[in-house]
Structures are given as C-alpha cells and as structure tokens.
C-alpha cells in the first residue's frame, strides 16, 4: 500500500491516500453563514485530494463563534454548500462535511437572546474567546438537563440530513478539539451523574447516539469520527484516555463506520501514542493527522501505521499538494498572518505548479528539481 495508491472509504473510491484535513478559515461564509463563492474556488482547487473534509460546520444557531464560519441548519446554507459539492464532484473530488457544536466554547454575545452556552457540566473552558467587544474569558456554561440532550442529538441529525441534501459524500462527526462531543467524552468536563456521565460507556453515549443517526442517513460507510486525545489546551483532559478512546474505537468498529480520524502529532512520545491501540480496536479505514511530512506520510502508509494521512497547514498553502508530493516538488510556505483573515488573500491565491508539471505528477513521474515557490 502506498500514499498515491487508490483507496476506499465506505462506498466511495479515493484517488490516493491523502486527505485534506478540516480547516476553519473564518472567511467561508457571509453574515447568514452561507458559503461564499470563494469557498467553491477554495475546495475545487484542492479536489485532487483523495478525500476533502470540510471545515467544521455549525449544526445549530446555538453553536456560534467568530464571523465567517459556516453552518448547515438553514435552507440557504444547504443551497450554498450544494454549490461547493457540485463543483468538487465535477472536478473529480470527494468531500465529507465535518459537523460540530461548540458547547461551552460558544460566544454568548453572538447566541440568540445572549443565552449562556450549554455543556455537559457547568465547567468553563480555560482561556479566552474572541468576542465583538474583545477577548474575554470563556463563560461558565449552563449544564444541560437530561431531557435536553436528545434535542442536541436531533440538532446533529437535522444537520446530517442537510449535509446529505447538500450533496456531501458523507459526514465527519467532530469529536475533537474541546467542542461539545469532546466535552461529553472527557471526565474533566463531564461530571454528570445521569446516563450521559460517570462511566466511559455513559460519556460516549452522546457521540454514539449522533453516529447512529448519521448511519441511518448516510449508511455506515458515509460516517467518520475525529478525535484528539492529546489536545488539552483549553483545560479538557481525561483521567484514562487510553481506556476511553479504546472503548470509543471499539464501539465505532462495531458500527462499521467509514473511518476513524485521529489527531496525534508526530512529536508525541512513543510511550504516549494511542494510534496503535485505536488501530487494533478499529478495523476500518484509519486516518492519521498531526505534524506529518511527505516523508513520514510515505512511511506511515507503507508500514500500515495508517490507511490515510490528513494534512492541514500544508493544504492551506498548497492547493496542488498531491502533485507536489508525487513530484517531490518544493512546497509553498504557509502565511500564518492570513490563516483567519484576508478574504481571497491567503485563501485562494497560493500558486500552483505549471499545468504540465502537475499533470506529470498525477501520472507518477519521477521527482523533478523545481525552483522554490513561496507566496
């Protein structure tokens, strides 16, 4: 198995094992959170990826943060996303939509009625949130009542249905980076005593109920889940991550979902790595992300460490990443100053290889010696 060999996720064939990771860029959407025309260009530019995973997309008007981030809970949002999926498919690409709810990390200043964010427990995230009036500490959220939790599951269900209507090939449930699903999973944020808290089985219940809804709509192969056991920057942690995520992986394996997507930076010490355990517990396609280079990606696929490799920062700066990797061509350097602002600048204006070289790359030609190409 090689990085440039065709693969399969559920019912879709992928041209290679390279995945575009979900990347929030804060310039995708208009004030109604409908995808803009520049988003169509952005995703089509990257359609040679084996699979594109869209930026994290809000499932509800009660999951709101900075402007420019997309959502998929209104007819207008669905129609706007349909333009993206149609264009990606016309370019030969495959695209899943990542869905999330911010939970305790939502901005009360932007929520309807200035409502408090909701979470499994009334425990604030560590750090600050960017608000219209400047940075503020994350607020203490309101703990969800037991009878409210099914309503949150239903928000995801409606968003999954909308993703299907918009033409996505599948959905990725965002169970990472300290957002609502992750808050339910980890015992530092979930101190509930009902059926959604306490034991690992209970804390995983919210995620698995969402996954079960997604399977009903897309089929098992059209569902992925992303997790980040090592992400603790906002105070989210767990007392036994190996047992927690081992259980999650096994439960997802029993559902035969399309893939499991793990963020595990390559700098993670060998003794702390959780990928081998998850690979053992989950038998389906396994996506690995985190500080991975072309060279380490080649090794990871060839050794069977992962089935697919997801790239984030490199895809920001290199729309034609697949061709550059095939050729061993120089990479554009990401411009961090424009990661989250700049309209078209730093979003759809990164240079690509000459068409003849990019085509040669797709055909698997030997690496060429090219001049460095930076923005």
Would you kindly provide a written description of the structure presented here, covering whatever features stand out?
The chain has helices spanning 37-45, 75-90, 149-165, 180-185, 200-203, 205-218, 241-254, 275-281, 294-303, 313-317, 321-327, 355-362; strands at residues 7-9, 12-14, 18-20, 51-53, 57-58, 95-100, 118-119, 128-131, 134-137, 142-143, 170-175, 223-227, 259-263, 286-289, 308-311. The protein is of the alpha/beta class and 375 residues long. Strands 3-4-6-11-12-13-14-15 form an eight-stranded parallel barrel, surrounded by five helices. Strands 1-2 form a two-stranded antiparallel sheet. A two-stranded parallel sheet has the order 7-10. The two termini are 34 Å apart.
List keywords for this structure.
single chain, 375 residues, alpha/beta, TIM Barrel, 8-stranded parallel barrel, two-stranded antiparallel ribbon, 12 helices, 15 strands, globular
First and last CA, distance: 34 Å
Task: Tell me the structural class.
Answer: alpha/beta
Mean pLDDT: 93
CATH superfamily: Aldolase class I
Strand content: 5-15%
- Quickly count the domains: 1
Which residues sit in consecutive blocks of at least 5 with pLDDT less than 50? Answer: 358-375
CATH fold annotation:
TIM Barrel
User: Under the CATH scheme, which class?
Assistant: Alpha Beta
Specify the CATH architecture: Alpha-Beta Barrel
Strand order of the largest sheet: 3-4-6-11-12-13-14-15
Query: How would you spell out the order of helices and strands?
Result: EEEHEEHEEEEEHEHHHEHEHEHEHHH
Count the helices. How many? 12
- Overall outline: globular
């Amino acid at each position: 198995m090689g990085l440039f060999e065709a693969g399969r996720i559920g019912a879709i064939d992928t041209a290679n094992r390279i995945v575009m990771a979900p990347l929030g860029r804060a310039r995708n959407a208009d004030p109604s959170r409908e995808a803009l025309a520049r988003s169509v260009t952005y995703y089509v530019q990257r359609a040679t990826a084996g699979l594109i995973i869209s930026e994290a997309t809000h499932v509800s008007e009660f999951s709101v943060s900075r402007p420019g981030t997309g959502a998929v809970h209104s007819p207008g949002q669905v129609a706007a996303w349909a333009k993206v999926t149609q264009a990606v498919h016309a370019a030969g690409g495959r695209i899943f939509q990542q869905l999330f709810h911010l939970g305790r990390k939502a901005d009360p200043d932007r929520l309807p009625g200035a409502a408090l964010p909701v979470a499994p427990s009334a425990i604030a995230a560590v750090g600050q949130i960017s608000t219209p009036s400047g940075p503020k500490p994350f607020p203490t959220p309101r703990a969800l009542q037991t009878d409210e939790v099914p309503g949150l599951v239903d928000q995801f269900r409606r968003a999954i249905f909308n993703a299907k209507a918009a033409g996505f090939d599948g959905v990725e449930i965002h169970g990472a980076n300290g957002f609502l699903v992750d808050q339910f999973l980890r015992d530092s944020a979930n101190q509930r005593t009902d059926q959604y808290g306490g034991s690992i089985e209970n804390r995983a219940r919210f995620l698995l109920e969402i996954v079960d809804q997604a399977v009903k709509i897309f089929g098992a192969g059209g569902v992925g889940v992303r997790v980040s056991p090592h992400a603790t920057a906002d105070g989210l942690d767990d007392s036994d991550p190996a047992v927690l995520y081992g259980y999650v992986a096994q439960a997802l394996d029993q559902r035969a979902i399309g893939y499991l997507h793990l963020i595990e930076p390559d700098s993670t010490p060998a003794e702390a790595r959780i990928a081998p355990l998850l690979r053992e517990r989950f038998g389906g396609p396994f996506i690995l992300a985190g500080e991975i280079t072309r060279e380490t990606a080649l090794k990871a696929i060839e050794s069977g460490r992962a089935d697919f490799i997801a790239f984030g920062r490199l895809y920001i700066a290199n729309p034609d990443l697949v061709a550059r990797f095939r050729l061993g061509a120089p990479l554009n350097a990401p411009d961090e100053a424009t990661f989250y602002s700049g309209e078209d600048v730093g979003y759809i204006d990164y240079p690509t290889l000459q068409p003849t070289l990019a085509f040669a790359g797709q055909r698997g030609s030997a690496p060429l010696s090219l001049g460095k190409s930076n923005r």
